Amino acid sequence: MNGSTAVGKQGLGELIRIRPYMQFMMSKMVSRFADSIDSIAYSWMVYVLTGSKVLMGTLLAVNFLPNIVFGLFAGALVDRLSPKKVIVMTNTGRGVIVGLTALLFALGQLEVWHLFLFTILNSLLECFTSPAEVSSVPRLLPPSLLLSGNAMTTSATRLAELAGLAAAGACIATVGIACTIWIDAALFAFSALLMSGVHYPEGMPARGVSSAARSLIAEMADAFHFLRKHALLLISSILFALVNFCLMPFNVLRTPYVMETLHADAWGLSLLSGLLVGGIVIGGLWMSHWGVRYRKSVLIITGIVMSGFGYAMTAVPAYMTAFQLPVAGFFCLLMGLGIPLATTPLASYLMEVTPSHMLGRVSALQSMLVLSVSPLGSLLSGVLADWFSMHVLFIVFGVLLGLSALVLLASKSFRQEM
């Protein structure tokens, strides 16, 4: 135990001394902080502007489409470009789009079609940002510090998200939605400015366009074949597609749930979102210290059931007359705690069985499969919210989420390999 702690402290000290990496991480933290603010501000703005749950579901569905359609191709294109330039350009572009949203909203000129257009443009830019950030880490760090660097980046960005969720409610309540979105635009611009000062070592030579195109097709086919041959990876992809589908009502309806069921304002929305992310952070820390003591199968099933139970129990405040927000917050925290228990062991298994030269492709394909149900779930959530009470939907989909663990329990390969 003492030896591993010493290694961890030494790795952290070495990371802090690598200035380009620390500046890159600061830029990423600022952009994640901004992401969290606009996730609250946009949701609040859409509901205030339209009052339509169907529209909120449709807008969220549209948000997923660029990643599903272009995500794999964006990653291949980023390989031919400078990741630094990609991140600077995409964060600058997002700042311009968010700033334009704030301007139109402040002038009273913002319309529904603007929201759809800006959402699609933002999502397209995000398709390029994510693979550029992933490819940046091994360029900025030596191989011996990759594990420590990835762990540090994950923890830091989660904390930035948590801070952004808390700040969003404060900003909306004190300075209003338009000013909050202006602040968000400035944060994206600041992130791009920080990133522009990062010095990258000399990169690998670019591939030819024609050979890269042929390679992309062959590599994508290899990823499909690999996933098909590994039953547990395919089953886990199906499972988390189902989990993602079940979570859509909560993601789509969180703002009206806070306003109509909890009778709270933007502070309440920030609190619930912050507790959900906080639960993920706490669960991740617990996993890093004590997760190795348990079988992967036990952790996965426990995490899925815990998240499903917490999700279903968020309906309880609808039957209460007092302490609605604290009770809802507790069950959001519980839901967040279960997420790393369920996802971390499967991510570790993916890395254990997938050859290193295929890991990027296979993980991207798995992500695409998991996200593929998101548009349908988002649209369905908005429609169902006009037919059924939100707390009824949370109970139904929370129970379905918990029962989705049966998909794994029914798998022979899961019982044998996990």
TrEMBL record:
Subcellular location field: Cell membrane
One Pfam match: MFS_1
Keyword hit for Transport: yes
Limits of the Major facilitator superfamily (MFS) profile domain: 232-418
PROSITE patterns listed in its UniProt record: MFS (PS50850)
Keyword Transport attributed: yes
Xref: InterPro entries: MFS (IPR011701), MFS_dom (IPR020846), MFS_trans_sf (IPR036259)
Segments traversing the membrane: 55-77, 97-121, 162-195, 231-254, 266-286, 298-320, 326-350, 390-410
First-listed, main subcellular location of the protein, grouped into a coarse class: membrane
Annotated membrane topology: Multi-pass membrane protein
Keywords on record: Cell membrane, Membrane, Transmembrane, Transmembrane helix, Transport
Domain of life: Bacteria
Record-given protein name: MFS transporter
Organism expressing this protein natively: Paenibacillus silvae
Species classification: Bacteria, Bacillati, Bacillota, Bacilli, Bacillales
